[in-house]
From TrEMBL, chains A, B, C, D:
InterPro entries given in the database record: dGTPase-like, HD/PDEase_dom, HD_assoc_2, HD_domain
Name recorded for this polypeptide: HD domain-containing protein
A Pfam family recorded for this sequence: HD_assoc_2
GO molecular function, one term: dGTPase activity
Organism of provenance: Latilactobacillus sakei
Amino acid sequence: MTYAPQKLTREKVFRDPVHNYIRVDYQVILDLIDTPEFQRLRRIKQLGTTSSVFQGAEHSRFTHSLGVYEITRQICDQFQINYPTKQPGDGLWNDNERLVALCAALLHDIGHGAYSHTFEHIFDTDHESITRQIIMTPETKVNQILSQVAPDFPAKVASVIDHTYPNPQVVQMISSQIDADRMDYLLRDAYNTGTKYGEFDLTRVLRVMRPYANGIAFLANGMHAVEDYIVSRFQMYQQVYFHPVSRGMEVVLQKLLQRAKFLYEQPDHHQSLAPQLLIPFFEHDFTLRDYLKLDDGVLNTYFIYWLDYPDTVLNDLADRFLSRRPLKSVKFNPSTEDCLPEMRALTEQAGYNATYYTAVNNSFDLPYDAYDPSAKSPKTQIEIIQSDGQLNELSSISNLVAAISGKFSGDERFYFPKEMSDTANLEVFAPIYQQFNSYINNGAIQAHPHNQ
Amino acid sequence: MTYAPQKLTREKVFRDPVHNYIRVDYQVILDLIDTPEFQRLRRIKQLGTTSSVFQGAEHSRFTHSLGVYEITRQICDQFQINYPTKQPGDGLWNDNERLVALCAALLHDIGHGAYSHTFEHIFDTDHESITRQIIMTPETKVNQILSQVAPDFPAKVASVIDHTYPNPQVVQMISSQIDADRMDYLLRDAYNTGTKYGEFDLTRVLRVMRPYANGIAFLANGMHAVEDYIVSRFQMYQQVYFHPVSRGMEVVLQKLLQRAKFLYEQPDHHQSLAPQLLIPFFEHDFTLRDYLKLDDGVLNTYFIYWLDYPDTVLNDLADRFLSRRPLKSVKFNPSTEDCLPEMRALTEQAGYNATYYTAVNNSFDLPYDAYDPSAKSPKTQIEIIQSDGQLNELSSISNLVAAISGKFSGDERFYFPKEMSDTANLEVFAPIYQQFNSYINNGAIQAHPHNQ
Amino acid sequence: MTYAPQKLTREKVFRDPVHNYIRVDYQVILDLIDTPEFQRLRRIKQLGTTSSVFQGAEHSRFTHSLGVYEITRQICDQFQINYPTKQPGDGLWNDNERLVALCAALLHDIGHGAYSHTFEHIFDTDHESITRQIIMTPETKVNQILSQVAPDFPAKVASVIDHTYPNPQVVQMISSQIDADRMDYLLRDAYNTGTKYGEFDLTRVLRVMRPYANGIAFLANGMHAVEDYIVSRFQMYQQVYFHPVSRGMEVVLQKLLQRAKFLYEQPDHHQSLAPQLLIPFFEHDFTLRDYLKLDDGVLNTYFIYWLDYPDTVLNDLADRFLSRRPLKSVKFNPSTEDCLPEMRALTEQAGYNATYYTAVNNSFDLPYDAYDPSAKSPKTQIEIIQSDGQLNELSSISNLVAAISGKFSGDERFYFPKEMSDTANLEVFAPIYQQFNSYINNGAIQAHPHNQ
Amino acid sequence: MTYAPQKLTREKVFRDPVHNYIRVDYQVILDLIDTPEFQRLRRIKQLGTTSSVFQGAEHSRFTHSLGVYEITRQICDQFQINYPTKQPGDGLWNDNERLVALCAALLHDIGHGAYSHTFEHIFDTDHESITRQIIMTPETKVNQILSQVAPDFPAKVASVIDHTYPNPQVVQMISSQIDADRMDYLLRDAYNTGTKYGEFDLTRVLRVMRPYANGIAFLANGMHAVEDYIVSRFQMYQQVYFHPVSRGMEVVLQKLLQRAKFLYEQPDHHQSLAPQLLIPFFEHDFTLRDYLKLDDGVLNTYFIYWLDYPDTVLNDLADRFLSRRPLKSVKFNPSTEDCLPEMRALTEQAGYNATYYTAVNNSFDLPYDAYDPSAKSPKTQIEIIQSDGQLNELSSISNLVAAISGKFSGDERFYFPKEMSDTANLEVFAPIYQQFNSYINNGAIQAHPHNQ
């Protein structure tokens, strides 16, 4: 028997709090889970700094990746029971696509690194290209296993993840506006944070999915379940993912890494700072093997080292990150943006290096969008299929979805040390603090008399 | 206003998946949560290697500690509403005890370190004495905050944790056979693992607790809720905490640290190995500050370093730990114990250093015990209070509890490399493997012809 | 001690699947629950014919009424802890209002009868005026108990329910667009039907409520929790309360009662039909005592009697109702409405009495509305209170709510015997059936060639 | 295509709060659900008078029956995937048995009547023999549908329910100490009462079931899940099913029916009492058609009639039942049983007819029992199957189960009017009340000085 279709004699399960069981019936899947590259995801939190606000959000990209696999498996099962293809080109489900779908689902996040987005921003790495590398390069266990299925199998799996795989059903399962990835993270993040916004009726959504020639559509009688999912996603962004305090921790992290990089580039610090596993990244010269050694704990370990490093910006930022002392923030908008230079100046006057102690941070998300061919990366729209086969784009028939469709939600915030807003404290800096706070009202920057 | 009774003008909450909200109304509690010593608990998993089997078990000692605080707060509330003291010595609840109870609840685990039990075993540290140090030494933020309540307040909090505090109600809230600690960890571990064994009816248990002169008793009409809790605890030990695979990872960890310590003591490795933050522990000469720098991520970081270290035992064990390749096990008992030397010898013959690749591991727990004054550490028994005030020890009136009372449950296992049981593989070592496996039947060592 | 403030020495609880425990600490509340008028609510289903579609929806108005009481109790507790009045007119919470609020919450539905809306329609009863009667007339146990609190207490409770009580906070707790009644029924109906649409974050909504001079407002940081509640309510109407099949059962019930009333008015049936407990209603001459004898089971009992009654319309409709054979439906709109006469005529031709076997049924709901003084019954709008005290009406700051605000949702349907659409059956009526179905496409009436 | 294997082109689902969806893929099952005999189960509460204590327990035998069907369906699926038969006599699962298993599961309770056990006791009916009749007699829709599958199919289904069907796997699915019936009612009753005692890990129990030659066994690694189920069942009996107050309502019901029957037998009441649908039962001469007309609502309707009947025992008992005023109780045992005559005499002296106002009520259950061929109805024991195929009876390897195995749990209680224990009331009967209460201590009868 070849490796590809090698089914286990008895299904193996992983206990999961969200899906109850993750069910595996291919040896390939078990072997992929057991690779060092995949096991490494256990050491990377799914939500980064979010657990500084929602303390239960301690789950890893490992558990999420298993969840995406499981939802994909359930979609394949449903398609195979209810919509099996009869002849090529009939737009129904071809179960030969199952294994590539499952592998892509499992591996879609395998290139993620420690504190992903912040790290990428500072060190110019790209988790998507690394995902591709991990799958394609013969040096990884992942590639070696995938290659046993068929020589071209790694390339197939990679093409699903980067949307170039020819079968749109497989691509949309893993990546679309309502895919296994988003469905798992909403449910899992809601479960672990203890919020309810992310909950939606997964069983019903899965039940109303159906394959068609151009991908996946949703039965008209399940429109409200899809609507509920879109609203849930919108609310998770508003309430959890964009939380200003969690972004305040992200800003600290970003400034901390930026300071370390700056110091490393100074001759007198170069030698003494030397964070062994980060050096290739400071040097802009890293291998995949270097990348795969990083995880949240490695970064935190260097932050612990830096607590004692003789640079007050570095050791203070390290302490703020480890002891959870985020920068504080106020909202601003184009009309109040011109207050920022003066607020930065006041922060400097109060003794803070404004380069490291102030920041602007945006968080915006497009909760849902109908297809717009002129967009930079046009999104696959959600299609509702009527009983006579007619397709309607979701926002065209749902008032709720139309209300949030195509509109960016989020805000733009100015971050600064919390101490700046402590006007009660009668210190030497009190007048500066008071002037600083005259710019702020109701959590937002207000136009200032001086600037008007 | 003094610090001690400084209540917040509006309750502050932390969202929690198990208790929905953790409610805080004292500034002291908020300040303790914000200390570096307490924040460090975010970086230490509550269940150590258990997440290698139940992958959802990624929660930290931080979230658990908040949970213990919250349950204690709820007990105090219930006692204050229903059983407030009228006069000294009436055995009812004195709400002046609330703050010491809450602080002890929050801090009871603060001395825990990375991979606690294994680490303690190898490096001879003791988390209980460190908890006491953190609370008592003026160098910690925790002590500084507690001291602001009253100069003797740190000592009071510490005495609750080590059971010498005079009020038995406060002590039993935090530490007894049915305390806030156990109640939180059962619910939280069940929630995160996705198992249901740990679930019991917390609201009802809390409702039937009542203070009396010698501590805390349970109303007779709530006996079954307490019974259910005992059975849940028994089953979590059987099914989750004693899981043989998770113990197989613990064995790998233990051997890995043991090997590193051994190498460090060799002159030619001393210099090259040098895991900066662990050196004080290798040297048996560490400060509290050294201890507080450790966490799971720090240890994992050194394991990543060791992947490349030129000692095949060290780098292989590091890889096994990081990539989740536990040692395998079989049960044995006194009558089959004499097979172990030969099985160890065969493991050596197959090329493994038996000192590092075989181990014996016991896991035993006493699910419940009535008071036994002759025991090494006699346990506070659970008292059921009848409507006429009479007390009955739980196991004397519950068949279910009597069935598991005073009986150790658990097993003794022999661990070895999984490869030893791979008899299908036709390798050079196949005959050795076959001989090794002739000692094993149905997951346990069987008496061997040679030894009979 | 007077009766009014007579608190129980120990809180009494009722186990509840939605709120875990219903907590009672006033003797008055216990006594009201024990009245025959309140116990009767156990025999009236909360959702009438909905259980014919969502079979779990078997819960009664009794459990819902306890739930409304419990949510009201929790609101009072929160208000008393966080917003206790300091001086008259400060717009904060006066806890002397607690008992009237609790009693009104408990009793708000006490006038509901069997299959309420349908029954009222046929027999011209009015559950609101009966609620008032039960509270006000000295012949009821409910009135006798309320009168013991104070002679004017029944009138106070009644005035809360009919919105004339002077304190707007108390009125809005029980009756507004986000009140204890709606919050309980959404959660309870979701729990029992097993749908998730009705779920929202009750704990958070309660936490962000605050009293102010003109009623109850919601803290700005809780806006999304309120938004989520509005969306949940919208979806429960769409998916559960307006379900076309459940309305098909309601139509059968309505026609059945209408036929019985018609027959009773015929001399030759008058004597033989005689449904003892319904006669006062057939005669348009009933007392409160007559009304309180009715419940779902009484009506069903007469339907069982009528299975054998020698009128084919009556016995067939009774059988349809008891054996769950709803009329079928299609949507129509003003442009297709003119097909109805011909479709009714075809139904007659197929042998059905169109008066009893066809019907038009509308279901429309206003999910949320800002205050419109010109409306027939203007609604209290939901106010979001900013940190500087400013009030914003919800839909003015929520895109989601604006999307469904002020718009009626629902549909208009034509009901007919399911047999009419059974075109596969080659019967004598087949041509009629085929002609009938030529009017229908995709679940709606389509404009017909004949009519164009 | 014949009717038997007529699978639906697309699965039909019923939304269920316990199992999420009930999935149906046979037309036969849909048709059985639509019969009047099965729909009637909607009007019979699963737990009778239990909802007087746990008010959420309002669910019907209809929803339970669907649940038993669904669990059976899941067992068949698991067996077919993992243990399909290869050749006759191999002890594995033959999927041709699926339809008979599903039908038997769905119909196993179809003979239940209103307030089943109490009614049977008074009127000498037997729901098991009626179940058989409904399935076997050509006058029912149920039989007509089953007969279309095959002429001998009704007899097969009936034989599964009465344990004479030759395939022990099918019989044990529906009826054994761990069957689909018990599993559904534990979960459903726990869900609706809001208690947690009945919860156990259904998914895991189903996963570890396997067919073998003599029926169904459980994999050794799932032993704790089975143990947990047994303990849950034990606790539901203790806490919910045997609740003394709910039994106090049952006693009222029993006495009420007994009084009505007595009066009916008196010439002067015969005519006036005349409860139309009950007459055949009063006359000991009823048909199946008579039986199928009864439900909870019909009985309650007559109780409402009787509120006005001029017999003070009858109208008072009716009022007690409808307004939830149960008889009160105390425990007794063989050593205190001799106090009963005097307590009954005192009740008479206080003006109550002791025949109708006092009662003895036993509730005993055998939580689990190993097979005992000498028992009146020997039970199928639960077999745990080891990895080498060896079977162990559950209680032989589980301390917990052994603790409650073969031991009857429950109690024996004496019921009397609550007024008898109201010693605070200074009435004419006060001395009698006081004497009565001198027999009672701590909720049980105590040996009385007079009797010693």
